[in-house]
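re: ur msg from earlier - yeah i can do the NAP complex, just paste it... oh wait u already did. ok heres what im feeding in:
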Amino acid sequence: MCGKNILVTGGSRGIGKATVLALARSGAQVAFTYNNNQSAAAEVLAEAEGAAGRVISLQACVQDYTQAKRVVEQVQEDIGDINALVLNAGITRDGMLAMMPEENWDDVIATNLKGIFNYTRASIYSMIRQRTGRIVCVSSVSGGRIGVIGQTNYGATKSAQIGFVKSLAKEVAPYGITVNAVAPGFIETDIWQMIPEGKRAGLLKGIPQGRLGKPEEVAAAIKFLLSEDASYITGTVLEIDGGLSA
Ligand code: NAP
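and the outut:
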């Protein structure tokens, strides 16, 4: 990863945080965004001290294209042209569709789906110009592979992300850019904690490996897809789910 400049959205917590740290420890210069949680972002910066690569953080809501453009310009100024993008920021607003408030639908679509358009659109020209680039989108087995009760909004965005990845992979393949998705199963982060306790036990039973995944296990797969070793892999979805979707 030495010499690579990588932008990670939603790097202050969970999978994003583990990815930022894994990339920085491998020598990449990493810029990450967060939404509200400034103290969590500061912790990531502190934990990254001593890593081989430099890490910077920027506050910006992924829902807003103007902010995405500002972030990309700032990153280019601070660390240089972006070589790779990890589209990670995402939220859940679970609930049965029959009772789902309209804002819970809109918020999830705006964050998980409009967010990936905003950051890809803002940085793709630079990768096309460089004739190289890597994009990894953090989708989910929920929606991406299986249905999960209470996640119609979330599942709709996660399957749409896979459609986005497959189409974009074909558009930019001639420019040496690869575009892939990872589809984590249930991973031990704040999102898992938001699932009601009673429901969590049932979900755990469905995982063949019998345990949750760790953010670091997802980060390792993202790092692989960003690496030179993955140069002939594009338009794919890699499940990291302990066998859940097998
Ligand atoms: P998390 O621990 O809740 O962290 C979410 C991250 O996204 C935080 O850095 C948060 O920033 C940021 N974020 C949220 N809304 C944002 C917005 N509007 N603008 C900018 N940043 C925003 O989540 P996670 O579990 O690591 O999930 C990361 C990704 O993995 C998501 O796309 C999620 O759908 C996917 N995923 C997770 C699981 C799982 O079981 N955890 C499974 C499959 C897929 P703040 O700290 O400022 O809030």
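cool cool. Residues 9-16, 33-37, 40, 61-63, 88-91, 111, 138, 140, 184, 186-187, 189-192 surround NAP (CB under 6 Å). ping me if u need the other ligands too
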